[in-house]
Amino acid sequence: MREPKWADEIREAILELGGVASLEDIYTKLVERNVRSRTANWKDTVRDAIQQHSSDSKSYRGINNYFYSVYGKGKGIWGVRDVVTPEVKKNLNSLFEETREFELEELIQQGTDEEIEQLINNYSGLGSQAKIEVKEGLQKIRKASKVIIDKLKELYDYSCQICGINPSSIYGVNIVEAHHIEYFSVSQNHNPNNIMILCPNHHRLVHSAKAKYCREKNKVVYENGYEEVLKLEKHLLVRKDN
Q1: What residue spans define the domains of the chain?
Q2: CB 218 within 8 A of CB 235
Q3: Which CATH number fits domain 6-80: 3.30.230, 2.60.40, 1.10.10, 1.20.1250?
Q4: Among 120, 171, 174, 218, which residue has the fewest nearby CB atoms (within 10 Å)?
Q5: What CA–CA distance (Å, rounded) separates 138 from 188?
Q6: C-alpha span between 66 and 24 (Å, rounded)
Q7: Angle at 18 between CA 12 and CA 24, to 5 degrees
Q8: Could you read off the pLDDT of 209-223 as tens digits, one per residue?
Q9: How far is the CA of 165 from the CAs of 99, 175, 189, 198, 218, in angstroms?
Q10: pLDDT tens-digit readout, 17-52
Q11: How many other CB atoms are found less than 10 A from the CB of residue 129?
Q12: Which positions ≥6 away from 11 have C-beta within 8 Å?
């Protein structure tokens, strides 16, 4: 049986790990899967394959842009750029058109499997097979999103990036939330550079007041012209170059 290309096998390994993984975890998963034969320098081959298939790397070959560098140069954390097929993504876009962005973010982060299934079943624009594929796609997206969001919450010590307040230090509970800069309902982009960690108050304000993030000035600009510079910023302005 012909072995798959390294890039394809690495992609499958990272997807099994939730869509985001460290190099060490990728190596471990590849050994566990045992699909590809391994030479003495196989880990070098894996690193090369990732960088050759990532536009975040100087070694990118210009095709099959499978991977992205999650936290920037030298961090050794890689993610799969598209966890679902273009057809599933198209169907997700149709499904999400009937769901408000804030409700969708809550559903992706905190919703139960039953709530997800109800959302899909209630949508009449998909056939039975498409609904199965969309459900599986959403499961992959939620798994990948959880890994990334949990790591970002830890990065900011469960504090809001806009006001800097850590609710857990005051009330003893971690209630910060993830906000998608480019709306998730449009892009399904769960890459870290599209996510802010916000307290519930600022999360609701950003949506209700139609705020936009200005990356060049590292500030949130509300529809009425009011601006707030992010008090905490550790990942949005990182230059990705491996």
Answers
A1: 6-80, 86-229
A2: no
A3: 1.10.10
A4: 171
A5: 10
A6: 19
A7: 75
A8: 999 999 999 999 999
A9: 30, 11, 26, 9, 18
A10: 988 999 999 999 999 999 999 999 999 999 999 999
A11: 8
A12: 66, 67, 80
